[in-house]
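Sequence and fold:
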Amino acid sequence: MTSANELWYTDERRALREAVRGFTRREIVPNLPAWEEAGELPRSLHEKAAELGLLGFDFPEKAGGEGDFIDLMVANEEIILAGGSTGVTSALFSHTIGAPHIAAAGDPWQLDEFVRPVVAGTKIASLGVTEPGTGSDVGSITTRAMRDGDEYVITGGKTFITSGTRADFVTVAARTGGPGHRGVSLLIVESDRPGFTVASRLKKMGWLCSDTAELVFDQVRVPARNLIGQENTGFLQIMQRFESERLTLAVQAVATAERCVGLAKEHATVRTTFGVPLAERQVIRHKLAEMQRQTMVARTYVRDVTARWAAGEDVGAEVAMAKNTAVAACDFVVDEAVQIHGGMGYMRETEVERHYRDSRILGIGGGTNEIMNEIIAKRLLGAPRVDR
């Protein structure tokens, strides 16, 4: 029987790791500082990633995809381990949150018009769920899509939208029915439609190379064929993708921690104080040991849960635990890595400084640490009693 860890190191995935590692060192690492200054990735990176086959993972063959979810996680890992960042992965793979609902619905026209181009790297996809007034409470969405003949007219706003300034289309959650989660649908909105506006490019603590936007829809008209699946089924479609997003963030957190252990170890080996390498000082040695321990424990658990989820098991609570475990390990490790680097750890030219900034979002995106604990508590204790 193949262990969860062995699934990540088959011969094919070892070759994938080598290919992604070379791609990252060649195409990403030399350009990352400039991309952070620019606030976005170039479209050419999507095209080059597509040529390598990286954008089709976890998409069906009928949509131009190949490979599975673990292949996608391996690609995320190696980009970070080879010197990239979670900012890069969030922007480069924004189609993995913006297009899967379309692929799952399986409409041939939508597959050809939207999914195949993002897999080929010629279009960029984004997901519009979060709103300024409701956050990620999908059941309280206020963006409205009114049916008018063969069209929907969309009015409202979205915020914190990854790749929102560059997206060719956005998968938008909008209210087509009554209040609550049963009245929400998903519609594809092309960014060149009249009334679609990028209201602002949001400035963030981290993920500087990943553009994030606030979007406004002012009576944007889209054809009815842009409806994804059945009307008023958007809530279920969104919920079905949350677990994959959470596992992705967990994998990114572990990879960030692993990268920072290596960077801290390297620095401690070459940096001397008072004539002695830092690595020979017990306090530093013990810091590195604890950083490695937490990283390896988190990696083992995250990989186990990911393999079980990919095999179709119902592991929703375990996914929440995996995400929080990975985030906690990452938070600890990046902080210690900066501390070991001393003053250089505070400088923009030092890689651990970027990981320190970038990692802070991992405990917020995809569901906060607190939301994850509520999911765990519900599985442990049952649904809370509501007194009437």
